[in-house]
């Protein structure tokens, strides 16, 4: 059945993220601000790039996780400027769901609104690491809509890693590999992701600080 297939695909996506996490080879730095280091390498999944963001955030893994976890009514739509709407289309288990994300227009409206349909998994590991992973999926309740360009996420997600001896800090690794679809100049795509990832980290840092207060 389709739902078993989706679950297997997203479990594989979570494994991919763990491999990306452990694999130091081939990354090229493209932007470092005070808050985040962004690097990239060619994706093995599609004809684009895999981007990696890394930073230490000023909050416990639980606080950070609460801000980013992919749940209906979660905090992410409130602080993440690239997420306009997030809805769970079908829960396949208590940790796996099919979700639809819409994004607003971006980059001075050069990038029109997008929609993404993904199967998403949430995992927690014995060392306290928490992970969410996603990959694109088709779902009968989510046919493409005329007012959005359908984009495709390839194995992507977030890994919250406890910092030894620092309970109020979290190392957050994010991996993005997204085919935005449509007809965008490559130069636009290549400058959009690093700036968007930097924005993701700075907005997330602000909200983590307010949660702690």
UniProtKB/TrEMBL annotation:
May be involved in the intracellular transport of sterols or other lipids. May bind cholesterol or other sterols. It comes from the Eukaryota. Keywords: Lipid transport, Lipid-binding, Transport. The keyword Transport applies. Residues 10-213 form the START domain. One of its GO terms (molecular function) is cholesterol transfer activity. InterPro entries: StARD5/6, START-like_dom_sf, START_lipid-bd_dom. Gene3D superfamilies: 3.30.530.20. Pfam families: START. GO terms for biological process: cholesterol import. This is STAR5 protein.
